[in-house]
Amino acid sequence: MVRTAAGYAERMASRRSIRDFSPDPVPFAVIEEAIRAASTAPSGANVQPWRFVVLTDPERKRRLREAAEIEERTFYGRRASDEWLEALAPLGTDWRKPFLETAPAVIVVFEVHKGPNSPKPYYVKESVGIAVGMMITSLHLAGLATLTHTPSPMQFLNEVCQRPPEERAYVVMPVGYPADEVRVPDISRKPLSEVLVRL
């Protein structure tokens, strides 16, 4: 059991978010299976309040990028505090989001709230967050790279993805292979002794 857990922890320690994707296509079956894994996540009252929209059409990805960059210009130019911008600086991010077009697939995950064809959900953000974590894990173990992108506000995603009002965007996730010239921020993780408390 310990060997299994340690092996998993070691494989996950190599996961990094990237922003430089190769345009090479990925097997759609891998994305399907990752979403199948995500849909096994626990959820409040087992309502399963999630929807996974996979964009592969170049024109739709272009529209997604254009709309996201409008919001991001405002975020970096006016909405973000100096403290927030300072925290982002080591990652080298700005309003430009070319990965939304370059990555061969972009998964937009929506929370599903009560609507004409959906029941009242419980613990929506917690449930969807767990599912997204499981999807990231599945994609990483399959050999694909991801990025969790959260433009704010995200209402424009309903139009781009043709989703009804009761669905609210949670995260935008480009998926693909790293580009040959991929840049990965030099980050570290907190040691186990700092995050684990045994009582």
Task: Give the topology.
Layout: H1 2-13, H2 28-38, E1 50-55, H3 58-79, H4 82-88, H5 99-102, E2 105-112, H6 124-141, E3 145-146, H7 156-160, E4 167-176, H8 192-195
Antiparallel strand pairs: 1-2, 2-4, 3-4
Helix pairs in contact: 2-6
Summarize the structure in words.
The chain has 199 residues and is of the alpha+beta class. The protein has one domain: NADH Oxidase (3-Layer(aba) Sandwich), CATH 3.40.109.10. It is 42% helix and 13% strand. It has 8 helices and 4 strands, in the order H-H-E-H-H-H-E-H-E-H-E-H. The chain has helices at 2-13, 28-38, 58-79, 82-88, 99-102, 124-141, 156-160, 192-195; strands at 50-55, 105-112, 145-146, 167-176. It has a 4-stranded antiparallel sheet.
Task: Give a summary of the structure in a few sentences.
By secondary structure, the chain is α+β, with helices and mostly antiparallel strands.
CATH fold naming: NADH Oxidase
Mean pLDDT: 95
Give the termini distance in whole angstroms.
Answer: 22 Å
Question: How big is the Rg?
Answer: 18 Å
Major pleated sheet = 4 strands, antiparallel
Q: What is the CATH H-level superfamily?
A: NADH Oxidase
CATH secondary-structure class? Alpha Beta
Q: What structural class do you assign from the helix and strand content? A: alpha+beta
Q: Which geometry do the CA atoms define?
A: globular
- Low confidence ranges: none
Question: If strands are numbered along the chain, what order do they take across the biggest sheet?
Answer: 1-2-4-3
Which architecture would the CATH scheme give at its second level? 3-Layer(aba) Sandwich
Order of helices and strands: HHEHHHEHEHEH
Whole-number total of structural domains: 1
Share of residues in helices: 40-55%
Helical segment count: 8
How many strand segments?
Answer: 4
- What percentage of amino acids are in beta strands? 5-15%
